[in-house]
Specification:
Helix 6 packs across helix 7. The chain is built from 11 helices and 8 strands. Helices cover 49% and strands 15% of the residues. With 303 residues, it is of the alpha/beta class. The protein has 2 domains: 132 residues, 3-Layer(aba) Sandwich (Rossmann fold), CATH 3.40.50; 106 residues, Rossmann fold (3-Layer(aba) Sandwich), CATH 3.40.50.1400. Cobalt (II) ion binds next to loops.
Amino acid sequence: MLPVFRSRWRCSWLLAISLLVCLLLPLAALAAEHGAGLAGKKAILLVSFGTSVQSAQKVFAKIEAATKARFPGVEVRWAFTSKMIRHKLARQGQVTLSPAQALANLAEDGFDRVAVQSLHIIPGEEFEGLQDTAQRFSGMPKVLKQVTVGQPLLASPPDMRRVAQAMLAQAPAERKPQEALVFMGHGTPHQANALYPAMAAIFKELDANAFLATVEAKPDLASVEKELQQRGIKKAWLIPLMSVAGDHARNDMAGKEADSWASQLGRAGIACQPVLKGMAEYPSVVAVWMDHLQEAWDGLGKD
Ligand code: CO
């Protein structure tokens, strides 16, 4: 009686295990597949103010190439923070995304952690808006597990010095020491505008004839013009302190109109030579943004 019972018991036990294995194996395989497809699927989102100048957009391709070289195999996408630029491009038939749209698309495409890199120059209004968007998406249930944001270009005193050195090293070879370098920053009513006079001081310390003025705030061109005249400087190289040589560089700085920087300084007897090259065209400057992206990338969780 007993041996029979035992054998029957063993038999049903084995059957139960086999059934369990049969049931669990496909489930485990499914889970593994699911895990491989989604867990740890990370992406990079590059975010610029944007530009409506088509030729200036080529610069973005260079930043993208630098990003892909530093983070091989990682999905790299773009977003523009300026609604005005996005709408202008849309009218020309070019579809661009806001940071929120790009993050939503990444989530939809199965990415769960995103390192966002700001290609702005200073942590001003545009950067704060981007940070705000990223924070709202970070950890949003069933959307994205995590979103980190890399700092803009001038994020710390060492960054500022590094950028100033890089820009001075890239100054046109034809420029003579007695000729001025006038960097054109954007300028903003935001408190981060304080970085511009700070940058001007660093430029001056590294090169006695290097100046900085902004288009929309202080220091302005009038103050630089006064200094150039006091020093008896007869020639100035105008260089954008902006990521791309877009509308401001082409029109406000180098334009033929009477109120452009070149025209204004020209009337003051200072011959101007504009350099229509954005900061993103200099690998030594792009490297600073890439180091900030590395920090954002390293901050992403592993699972
Ligand atoms: Co502007």
